[in-house]
Amino acid sequence: MNETGQPYQYQRRELVEPDWTRLPGWRHVTREQWESAQWQRANCVKNLKQLRAVLGDLIDERFYADLAEDQQQHATMSMLVPPQMLNTMVPHEAPTTEALYADPVRRYMIPVASDRRPDWPSHPYATRDSLHEHDMWVAEGLTHRYPTKVLAELLPTCPQYCGHCTRMDLVGNSTPTVDKLKLTLKPVDRYEGMIAYLKTHPGVRDVVVSGGDVANVPWKNLESFLMRLLDIETIRDIRLATKALMGLPQHWLQPDVVEGMERVARTAARRGVNLAIHTHVNHANSLTPLVAKAAQTALEVGVRDVRNQGVLMRGVNATSADLLDLCFALQGEAGILPYYFYMCDMIPNAEHWRVAVWQAQQLQHDIMGYLPGYATPRIVCDVPFVGKRWVHMLTEYDREHGISYWTKNYRTSIEADDAEALSRRYPYYDPIDTLPESGQKWWRKQEATVAV
Ligand code: SF4
């Protein structure tokens, strides 16, 4: 409890760009370099050697050894951290090893072996494509899961790779433990296949244009794809998915990108289409004046809304104070609407990040009533074969074994002939370490019989 007598005390905090010259490798980097998208991309940290070059001897060898072990044995994503993001780790002092270990942004962008759970690194039912997006492709990269909406994965890369990426099956370079699925068509043919599907399926009105991250599509190609979407009368909503608005705001501030966005936004407005940007920020420390500038610029050129879809993760943001600090910074300082927090999906080696459904329900309860209602995010569980569900929408919950059951009210594209699809109950699983001892014991017995 604090001096207001409330469980959470709101305090306005101005955004600050952490001083990058506190890091030995960037001591001489100028503001002009820092604000250049090209410089940011060229100086992304992709391996231990480059991380060492930035952090110098501020960090002990044991951290680098821990990281090397993780990359060899556990990581589902390769390393790719833009300077902008690295600079928000231990943001306001020269980092020490302990502070870097404890940092919330580091915990998901630069995971180390000692972060993972030795007892249950993966849930027995964790899978590579946990949402079965690939199974629901109706054209290469085009997932038709909900009746009126599609997800268009234009490409499999991003300017930054997050350790917990739900599309770890497809996105990024292969790692020692994960051989990635490869897109086979040339981009131009892939886009053609998507447009052809949308033209012949007028019931689809909403397209999430994603990847990967659309910031990695050369602007000319992205603009041309968006203009073609806008030519399809039946498309009424377009949402651009880009974590880079936060991870590499310099990209979205480049004059050719801003001018191009303005052309697309003007066309969308003329045609009555809702054009929005969806970004992915998980912690208040990631919001800096440059991120706010990128969001404001998009709004100024006519994008209708910039919204945040964060991921709820232990060690990163799974407390009500962390979530509210982030939401107030998004809403009050950056012009970004706090929209969703997804529970971290059931991918391999993610158990240390995942929270149980009851914990997510408690967090949803605890964040109500502080933010404006329209800016109070929903915490959602993306249930395999079901889709997003608010965390309170389960129909039954076996807390001992950590199994919640969910129902749905539509068929996905692979269930046209499934008579049971709308009456079946679909399971979702809590992390086993959050269960009572009797539940953990039950899973230990099951483990031998569950196909992973
Ligand atoms: S930006 Fe999104 S798609 Fe790219 S690695 Fe992160 S979570 Fe995955």
TrEMBL record:
**Keyword 4Fe-4S carried by entry:** yes
Q: Which SUPFAM superfamilies match?
A: Radical SAM enzymes
| Keywords attached to this entry | 4Fe-4S, Iron, Iron-sulfur, Metal-binding
| InterPro entries linked | Aldolase_TIM (IPR013785), Lys_aminomutase/Glu_NH3_mut (IPR003739), rSAM_sf (IPR058240)
Does the keyword Iron-sulfur belong to this entry?
yes
Which ranges does the record mark as transmembrane?
none
How is this protein named in the record? Lysine 2,3-aminomutase
Q: Could you tell me which species this protein originates from?
A: Planosporangium thailandense
Q: Tell me the lineage of the source organism.
A: Bacteria, Bacillati, Actinomycetota, Actinomycetes, Micromonosporales
